[in-house]
Amino acid sequence: MSAAQATSAILPATAFYWAILDASDLPANAERWNDPSLRATLDERLQDQLPIAVEELAIAFNRINQASILACALPVSTLRCAVEEQPELLLLAPDAVPPELNTAADAHALNLLNGPFEPPALAHAKRRRTNAALAVCAAAIALASLGILRRTDHLRSEASALESEMTEAAAHTSGSRADLERSRRLLDAERERLILTRTERAQKHVPADVSSAVAAILAAWPTDLEVRTQALSATAQGLTIAAELHDGAGGQELAKALGSVPGWNLQVPRIRSNGKSVRFDASLQRKAAGGGT
Questions:
Q1: Rounded (10°) angle between helices 211-220 and 180-197
Q2: Which of helix, strand or coil describes residue 286?
């Protein structure tokens, strides 16, 4: 007896019970035959077409089309006799599908050695495949995690550099060498002082207050973007900014952030290549009281 014959048993179709079950109300991809809910539904529908209880049968299913499932059943006693005669059995199937069923289903795909009758060798092979797939997934997750950690470290470094530049800009504007939060508070306090001390007459002579605009720019400044600020100038006519970024996309992101500063209009910025970096120049002008530019 060859190795294939020792592991396979092909019985005549007349040894089996056959039925075509209605599957029109089941999902089209429902082919997990060992799923308890699906198996219970199919067993109940098969029982209506059998002269004996489904509990006395080993059953295999095969989907014919979206609306039909082919059922093939063999008495458990017959299956056990076949296994006792061929202990190495891995496949027990019919030699053909009865022609009266009018289906082109593959008879050898109807392996009755499934579920509780699955041979240990097959179960072991499935576990090996599952463990191999899990190992591949674990390796992929580990590599992805390493990449995320490296990216996080890089972003932290960029954020630290950006905070230093913002602190320097705020210190230059406020005249204080304190940290960024302290410089912002100083700018806010100066803005409030100017608002409280202004009068209708004094407004004609006192230079325009730009601290609120600088504070608004610092609040809108994108914290996740690496920017090397070269100049931040505030005058009565407006504000100008000169900076360097890695690429044009960064320039567009900075322009979008500055364009959202309340009460100020961003003039069309100049973004041009400067060797390995991109030069960004822009100016902002205060909106008119009526909301225009």
A1: 140
A2: strand
